[in-house]
Amino acid sequence: QVQLVESGGGLVQPGGSLRLSCAASGSIFSIGAMAWYRQAPGKQRELVASITSGGRKSYADSVKGRFTISRDNAKNTVYLQMNSLRPEDTAVYSCNAEVRQTIALFTTNIYWGQGTQVTVSS
């Protein structure tokens, strides 16, 4: 079994910062790409940022210059540093990861975390 658990969400004022973490655990052989998504009420889920196993990063236009994605392969963890937060950033943020398990070396599956709430409000 593989589990992804997000942490670091909360309430922050406009212009503030938060750092989200997502740690993967279980019978993991290797992890490929990892990503952060978000979904606000009344809106579709959108890709916020992604990072490949080699460290190549991609960002949604709405967060470029404000958010930074990174990963620590030794800890099986991906991070999202969020600066200059705006009310429109309010959403449930979820991480996902491409995981190859030790019990299924020739199969790669995508796993999702349960999400963490980020609220930007004064």
How would you characterize the overall build of this protein?
- With 122 residues, the chain is mostly beta strands.
- It has no helices and 11 strands.
- Strands 2, 4, 5, 6, 9, 10 and 11 form a 7-stranded mixed beta sheet that branches.
- It is elongated.
- The protein starts with a strand and ends with a strand.
- 30% of the residues are buried.
Give structural attributes:
0% helix; 122 residues; 4-stranded antiparallel β-sheet; 7-stranded mixed β-sheet; mainly beta
Architecture blueprint of SSEs:
Elements lengths: L1 E6 L2 E3 L5 E9 L1 E12 L6 E6 L5 E3 L7 E6 L4 E6 L8 E11 L6 E5 L3 E5 L2
Parallel strand pairs: 2-11
Antiparallel strand pairs: 1-3, 3-8, 4-5, 4-9, 5-6, 7-8, 9-10, 9-11
Spans of 5+ residues with little confidence (pLDDT < 50)? none
DSSP summary: helix tally: 0
Shape, principal axes of CA atoms = elongated
Helix and strand string, N-terminal first? Answer: EEEEEEEEEEE
What is the CA-based Rg, rounded?
14 Å
